[in-house]
């Protein structure tokens, strides 16, 4: 399959205020696509549309070849998702939460146990396994959410600000594990304001601004397009393109 995530002409308004005005991008197996943009640019709305939590007014989304509007179950069964915020799991321990997600996904615990244990060790979550999710710090919750999305080794991974609150060591673990999954053939899309992480992890980025993707490509390509010079950072490019025009 040449495209695992296909987004075409996504349009969405809230209370007649347009938020997405024709967002299009695609992600191939093995790619990690970073969706960037100022606050309110529409990143969460786009990612929620991908997993069927927001119904777009127009446009087409396919995950693993399945149209999300008509074959949502099939599309989501090959997809891992890290939401921006979680609600409702406060009174589950981390262990119960992971077991709950695995059973929802129809995974057999015995088959994923070794992988989950490896991730739990890497993210240093062992001592929190029997703590309620509601008692944990933001970064610790994020680690549990990331593990819950990775544990099925999905073909498509959709992540909204996945590393917010994570310490630098865990962010490195995150980058390594997501890269590993991509090398195994997953297509990944993530939103982030942490441009340092994006620069190291993403093979391609798209900058969302005023409801459309204003530039897209590898970091080198968008640096050339923005003519910010070969020593410029992603932050330089981002600030140049979106300067003073927060949406
Ligand atoms: N349910 C909703 N009802 C009305 N407006 C909404 C709703 N959800 C989002 N919006 C508005 O849509 C716009 C885009 O929001 P969205 O959360 O998609 O942006 P974002 O790029 O993810 O922002 P951030 O970087 O701050 O997380 C914002 O102006 C927001 O206030």
From TrEMBL:
Organism, by scientific name, is Infirmifilum uzonense
User: Which residues does the UniProt record annotate as the domain ABC transporter?
Assistant: 5-235
Q: Which GO terms describe its molecular function?
A: ATP binding; ATP hydrolysis activity
Its recorded name reads: ABC transporter
**Record keyword Transport present:** yes
What is any Pfam family matched here? ABC_tran
- PROSITE patterns, from UniProt? ABC_TRANSPORTER_2
UniProt keyword list: ATP-binding, Nucleotide-binding, Transport
């Amino acid at each position: 399959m040449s495209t695992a995530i296909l987004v075409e002409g996504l349009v969405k308004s809230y209370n007649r205020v347009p938020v997405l005005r024709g967002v299009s991008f695609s992600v191939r197996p093995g790619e990690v696509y970073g969706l960037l943009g100022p606050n309110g640019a529409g990143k969460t709305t786009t990612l929620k549309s991908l997993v069927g939590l927001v119904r777009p007014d127009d446009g087409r989304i396919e995950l693993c070849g399945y149209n999300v509007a008509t074959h949502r179950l099939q599309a989501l069964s090959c997809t891992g998702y890290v939401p921006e915020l979680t609600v409702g799991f406060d009174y589950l321990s981390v262990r119960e939460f992971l077991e709950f997600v695995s059973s929802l996904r129809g995974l057999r615990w015995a088959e994923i146990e070794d992988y989950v244990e490896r991730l739990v060790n890497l993210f240093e979550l062992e001592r929190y396994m029997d703590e309620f999710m509601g008692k944990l710090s933001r970064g610790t919750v994020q680690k549990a959410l990331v593990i819950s999305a990775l544990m099925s080794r999905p073909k498509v991974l959709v992540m909204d600000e996945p590393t917010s609150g994570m310490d630098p060591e865990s962010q490195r673990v995150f980058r390594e594990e997501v890269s590993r999954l991509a090398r195994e053939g997953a297509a990944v899309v993530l939103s982030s304001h942490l441009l340092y992480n994006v620069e190291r992890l993403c093979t391609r980025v798209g900058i969302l601004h005023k409801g459309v993707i204003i530039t897209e490509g590898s970091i080198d390509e968008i640096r050339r397009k923005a003519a910010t010079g070969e020593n410029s950072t992603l932050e330089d490019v981002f600030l140049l393109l979106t300067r003073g025009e927060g949406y």
